[in-house]
Amino acid sequence: MPSHSRFNQLKFWADSASPFFAYAVLLGLVVPGAFLLPTAAAQNISSVTISSPGAGVSENTPVAANIANFGQEESSPESRKLADWVVDSADNGKLPFIIVDKVHARVFVFDAQGQLRGAASALLGLAVGDDSVPGIGQRKLSSIRPEERTTPAGRFVASLARDIKGQEVLWVDYDLAVSLHPVVRGQPRERRAERLASLSPLDKRISYGCINVPVRFYEKVVSPTFTGTFGIVYILPETRSARDVFGSYDVQDSSRKQASPRLAQASN
Hints:
This protein has 2 domains: about 1-30, no CATH class; about 30-260, L,D-transpeptidase catalytic domain-like (Beta Barrel). About 40% of the residues are buried. It has helices spanning about 5-15, 20-25, 75-90, 190-195, 215-225, 240-245; strands at about 50, 95-100, 105-110, 115-120, 125, 155-160, 170-175, 180, 205, 210-215, 230-235. The strands form 2 sheets. A 9-stranded mixed beta sheet has the order 1-4-3-2-11-6-7-8-10, sandwiched between helices. By secondary structure, it is of the alpha/beta class.
């Protein structure tokens, strides 16, 4: 954690900016571990969808109330059900939100009303699992074992901030050192850009827990959507049910009113 003097210096600088940006900077005072510069080879990934308001939705496309609008974008049933629940329950609190589907290695970005802004493939934690090892955010990357490289499931309040190299990232959980950011170069043997372009979700399990997305997708969708505001990131579980993690329900289920209240905390 930063020293009080370092904290005060950053706070003084941040206070000169807007109230939100000040808070976002303070969320990212120090980046645990290291972030590397994104690779230019990943800027043109074919599996990226960028939507302008109403894009992918024709005049004849029915848009029902209280469900997320994916337009023509394909998604897993789990992603769609969770996004519908977010909109129906207003769990996002009128903030933009992201659904991360770990099983299918996909990221969906929505505005506050549940309109899809864009979708893309993503690189995720190497290991299968829905929890992070306690204290992992303070450890060196070299000390993290393969089985500990998980992307945690849960509901997270997210905001933009800069890492120690000045690279903008979307902080998902600062204490766990989990962020969503443009794909990094990594070790040559990891072939991250190649993995991101692969059609196989299994190829996309390589990171230490962070969510790597195509550079263009981050710049054109993620960053503009979260600029000047907080947002919610929902990371779907892969070893438990969504209801266990979020307390969610199936919006299309007529008995959904019997579902228990959301069990997940505001931040995992």
